[in-house]
Amino acid sequence: MRPRRLPRFVRLAHPLNRDASLTSSLVRHSCSRVISAIASIELEVVPPQWPELLPFLYQLAVAPNQAHRAVGYFILFALLDTVAECLQSELPKMFATLGQGLNDPESLEVRITALR
Q: What is the pTM of this model?
């Protein structure tokens, strides 16, 4: 499950393009914050850009790989921290997705990130 429709520089830099299980959580969180910062610019313009981002994050949230799920949840968390105002229509789905993360059977990191 690699990001295909994300901007090329994000695809190349993101840890999902590598073996995510070998990437430290610090690196995953840093890359996720960069993606969130880019999204804060792209999603706040009129009309919003990067329409593929949220559907991709919802896919990550249910990915079989727990590191991928952790990245998806962390980006959702970071987006709520930076651009919640422009995502008003998405908030119910985002909160529902984060609620599902509270019950992740494999990953304590996912559960903690969803709780934030």
A: 0.75
